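User: structure tokens for this one?
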Amino acid sequence: MNNRFRVIVLILFGVLSLLSIRAAFDIRFSFDFEQFFPIGDPDLDAFKEFVKEFETDDNFLLIAIHRPQGVFERDFLEKFQRLSLDCRDLPHVQQVQSLTKIGYPVKTPFGLTTVPAIHVDRPDLYASDRARLLQDERFVRNLISEDGKTLVLFLKTIESIELKQARELMAGVETLVGKYKFSNVHYLGRPYFQQEMVRLQQREIVVATIVSAILVSLVMYLVFRRFWGTVVAVISLALGLLLFVGFLGGFVRELNTLSALYPVLVLIIGTSDIVHIMSKYNDELHKGQERRTAMWNTIRDVGLATFMTALTTAIGFASLVTNRVMPIKDFGINAAVGVMIAYFTVILFTTAMLTWFRADQIAQPEKEHAFWARLLQGIVDFTRQRPRAIVLSTLVLVLFSMFGISRITTNYDIISNLPKNSKITSDFLFFEKHLAGFRPMELAIYTQGDYRANDFEVLQEMEKIEQQLHRVDFIQAIFSSTALYKSINQMYHNNRPDAYRLPETKAEFEAYQRLAKRMPQLSAQVMVSKDELKARITSRLGDIGADRIKEYGQQLDRWIAQNINPKIIKVKRTGTGLIMDKNADYVRSNLLLGLGSSIGLISLIIALVLRSFRMMIIFLVPNLVPLLVAGALLGYWGVELDAGISIVFSVVFGIAVDDTIHFLSKFKLERNRGQSVEDALRITLLETGKALILTTVFLFFGFLVLLFSQHPTSVVIGLLTSITLFAGMVTELMLAPVLVRWLIRDKN
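Assistant:
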């Protein structure tokens, strides 16, 4: 490679780097639950129609303030009341609800009036207020905890609040909380999740990049033991990452929770390419070749294999495009682009820069080659002498893995996907323990015939459903338009707790209807559509997992079919919780579809390039074993297979095949040169085995970088990928030579 080529390469990458730095400032982050809704799902379409009639079920922010001594203390209640009033002026808040603002309706000879739920300025009434509130199902676990030690402020926000708006709202809330010196405060809701998850996401990317960069630099020095060789490798990898960041800023809409994996993937996969190229280049220099000749020999011998590894890895990631969950789909596309960017950076920049240095600045000491020769020759001899033991061990591993796979579940829950040791997680657990949970379940009520949502018959059917829901311990809050008529009935019976029920006769109900129009709404949410043809029963569930909720939902559907009059109402389950839970079903189907298409396409490419069906078999078998190991570990560890974890299989397969491609490409090259099967195997293992082991060891520790993540999914991905890639190396070194000897014969 001449100086002119080097200058062109430097100018090209210099321009691309400047453009990437500019584009990097346009990167945006997002964490919307809607991202995880499966595309094209009929239930999603039904939910969108539900939202049009009512509103979203996540347009809220809950502020829970805990006082261990109990909330019924004058100074505390006065500050809480002032906080409630001040929150009305916060940006993006449409309505505020709290027990210091709510009143019980009272009918007097002079008309309808209300008495406060909490007499803030009457401490002498606190005991009776507390007793009444803790018996009221409308408020317990919604606006007050069962033990009377936590009050909740409900802020109804604008729909689909965005990150910038969420940050503005949370800044205002935190300022007010600080103003009134509340100390034990917990938050729940979309604005809070938006802000905190994006903040953690940004931190994850920075930490992953820094730790990966340190690891790469260390490994490169340990491998090559030369300063300039390490510098070239590290600069090449940093340049590839910078170009990828530029791509994300210029062409990607927003980054999601899986974005922390990007720097790890780009750096680690790029390192694999560099190790193979630099190892071969060093070998050529070691043979006494001139630098330019050594590089051309390197490109000739491993250039195609390196391209094939990049292509197959990209295909492995791109297989995720079949996924119906958008963050997974985007991750697959972006990761595939990142792999190819890393490859072209290595093949152009790295190769150009290496030839600038003398052999003694790049090459390793002679004594290290002797160590590798002894180790790899030992592997050759072992696979020749113990083929049956290797095959039997593989079969045992497969059976062990199949049993583990049978134990995989998809009972997705929210808590297992929240960052460890973070305030957002502790807040979530606080609400789960003391108040109504986060996970919503909506029942859309469709009136039939001439019935309307506020008719006595419709409300009676809705009440049946609500009573059935009350029998379930993990349903922690229930609300509907029936609450208005129950509260009126209670008012007519001196506000006795046992009178909180629908009137017994239609005549009583019709009398209540006239009052209902003058009564204040008990909920900040819209409970009946404008045309009165539809209503909703809204509830909040404990975080018990997608599979359990799905099972209960099916039971509820059967109960409704048997007990609710279809001539009066029809009922359909909906809400963000239901849509997100359906991911469990799609994870199973998309995993098999995406992985199957990836395996099929990559195998076909291998068969066409190597022009041998037997070579395809040798390629396929050692790379299916790591997939089985990955599945087994999920089962034995008891890790739920959710949308995030499902990408492991594409990652593992896409990367694991790289070593096999290098192995088979070198073997075929030696066979074409006239070598026997045994000699070709020996030469292949001696020349590619070092790079194969080094890259796998590096990948093993590289993915362990994700153990520094606070996000449980990233931790599992890192640990799972590391272990299965190591298993892939073992099967490649042990099983592949056995299969070659069985399937490839010398011509007599």
